[in-house]
Every structure is written in structure tokens, then in C-alpha cells.
Specification:
By secondary structure, this protein is of the alpha/beta class. It folds into two domains: 166 residues, Spore Coat Polysaccharide Biosynthesis Protein SpsA, Chain A (Alpha-Beta Complex), CATH 3.90.550; 86 residues, no CATH class. It is built from eight helices and twelve strands. Strands 1, 2, 3, 4, 5, 6, 7, 8, 11 and 12 form a ten-stranded mixed sheet that branches. Strands 9-10 form a two-stranded antiparallel ribbon. α1 packs parallel to α2 and α5 packs across α7.
């Protein structure tokens, strides 16, 4: 049994060293870089990674699929460059892959950190990240769900010691910047599956996100962090639907501009001129002479 680790990167130097040290026991580490301009590639070279390159497309899925296709081990672990694998999780994955009935894929819980604090309102996020080579592909859409050919098993979210650590957002500015990029990509996903804007969807999705994170997942336990990032997540849904509305508005205006102008109504037929009576016709008739 062998394990390949696959990581996609674009200017990911901040947490990459810690990420790579956490998977140092892997049989191979494939780093798919999208032409970084920082120290990402030199850091990967110091850890003996096999480095391949992919054109930057603005999101991870195409590069992730490309990198998975280069893996040679029996099992594949997919990571972001800002994710850390605790030693307990790595040992669990080794035991799982060697077990009698590991299935084809494993969902792993992930703890998301924002401004240095793990957020309950974003936990648990269960992700298919560990699988047999050849059994999983990612659709080439942003935030898409991987397609698994086979059975999926899961690690209980109660096992916090087995959760991936994700250093998600270091600042609100970082969140807003990514929000703008990803909501534009969400619109492409909506349109690919034929989803249309409605005011009800805009309001309901935003309200649902707020209730889910702050109440159902008890984000109030996160204090101000929970309130701020619950509202920002709600705003993400609102902006995505607003951009869908904007796209449909542009479509309607474009279609209207391309339509031929309606024909002008036909002019009414010209009225016949009224004949002007001649002088003879209007002169008085001579009176008959009276004979005496």
C-alpha cells in the first residue's frame, strides 16, 4: 500500500512548508503549480516534491484533476497548500488504506480557521480527499463535488484529532477578495445547470445560510468571529445571486438590442381633394322675365 499526496499551488508560500512537513511520510508528493511568482516552487524543491505545471485558470479543480492523473501510488490524498495533516490523521489514513474493507473513498472532516481561530460555524466540513487512484474525478467547475466510482466511507466529525487543519482566511480583506472572484465563478456554474434568478432564491439562500451557521451549527459559540463570518458567508450567497440577476439583465438588454425594429404603421390613404365649384356653377340662375 502506497500513498501519493497531490497539492495545487499558486503563490502559496505562506503555509506550504508546514503543509509539506505534515505529509513527509508520503511515498510521493506531487505539487501542481500554476506559475507562482513567490517562493512556492523553491520551498517544494527543498521537500523533494515532483513539480508539474498547469496554466492558471482562477480556481483549483482543473489543476487538481491534472495532478491526480500523475499520481503513481495506490491511494491519493488531495490537499490545499494551506491545509495541515495532523500526525493522528496520517496514521489513521495508513491504517484505513491497509484495512480489509476501506471502500474507494474517504470523507475527512476539516476545521477551518479564520483570523487565527477555528470556527464552529464552519464545522464540520466533510470532504472526499482520500481515495483509491482512478476512482475519483473533479468536475471542472468551482467548488464542485468530486465524482466517486465506488463506496464512500467517512471519519466521524466528533474525532477532532482526525480533522484536517485549514488556515482559511487571515483577514477580512482576503475573504472579500476571494468572495468577488468565486461569486463570479458561481454564476458560470448556475448558468451551466440552467438555474435562473428569482428574488425568493436570493432572500432564502442568504437567510438559510445565516440560520444554518449561527443557530444550527451554533456559531454563536465563536463569539464575534462567528457573527462576522456568518454574515460574510450569508453575503456570499447574496452576491452570487445578485451577479446571476445582473448576467440575466445583460442578456435581456443584448437580446433587445439585436431585435429588428418593428415596422412603422402604414400611412392612411390620402383623402381625395374636394372639387372646387366653378364660377358658373355658383352664379345665380337668371329669373324669368314677367310679361305684362
Amino acid at each position: 500500500m502506497s500513498i501519493s499526496v497531490v497539492i495545487h499551488t499558486l503563490n502559496a508560500e505562506k503555509y506550504l512548508d508546514e503543509c509539506l512537513r505534515s505529509v513527509a511520510r508520503a511515498d510521493e508528493i506531487i505539487l501542481c503549480d500554476m506559475h507562482s511568482t513567490d517562493r512556492t516552487v523553491p520551498i517544494a524543491q527543498t521537500h523533494g516534491c515532483r513539480i508539474i505545471h498547469h496554466d492558471p485558470v482562477g480556481y483549483a479543480e482543473p489543476a487538481r484533476n491534472f495532478a491526480i492523473g500523475h499520481a503513481k501510488s495506490d491511494w491519493v490524498l488531495v490537499l490545499d497548500a494551506d491545509e495541515i495533516v495532523p500526525s493522528e490523521l496520517w496514521e489513521y489514513l495508513e491504517r484505513h488504506a491497509s484495512g480489509p474493507d476501506p471502500g474507494e473513498a474517504l470523507k475527512i472532516p476539516r476545521r477551518n480557521f479564520a483570523l487565527g481561530k477555528p470556527l464552529w460555524c464552519w464545522y464540520p466540513t466533510l470532504l472526499v480527499r482520500f481515495f483509491r487512484r482512478g476512482c475519483v474525478t473533479w468536475p471542472t467547475r468551482v467548488h464542485s463535488v468530486p465524482q466517486v466510482a465506488g463506496r464512500i466511507k467517512r471519519i466521524s466529525p466528533r474525532r477532532l484529532d482526525l480533522a484536517l487543519i485549514h488556515y482559511n482566511y487571515d483577514s477580512i480583506e482576503d475573504y472579500i477578495s476571494r468572495l468577488n472572484k468565486y461569486t463570479t465563478l458561481e454564476v458560470e456554474k448556475f448558468r451551466q445547470r440552467g438555474e435562473k434568478f428569482t428574488l425568493t432564491k436570493m432572500i432564502w439562500r442568504s437567510f438559510y445560510e445565516f440560520c444554518k451557521l449561527l443557530i444550527y451549527r451554533r456559531g454563536y459559540r465563536d463569539g464575534m468571529h462567528g457573527l462576522v463570518f456568518t454574515v460574510l458567508t450569508m453575503f456570499y450567497q447574496f452576491v452570487a445571486m445578485a451577479k446571476l440577476w445582473e448576467a440575466e439583465l445583460r442578456d435581456r438588454r443584448r437580446a433587445a438590442a439585436m431585435e429588428p425594429a418593428p415596422p412603422l404603421p402604414a400611412a392612411p390613404p390620402a383623402a381625395m381633394p374636394t372639387p372646387v365649384p366653378t364660377a358658373a356653377a355658383i352664379s345665380p340662375k337668371p329669373r324669368a322675365a314677367v310679361l305684362g
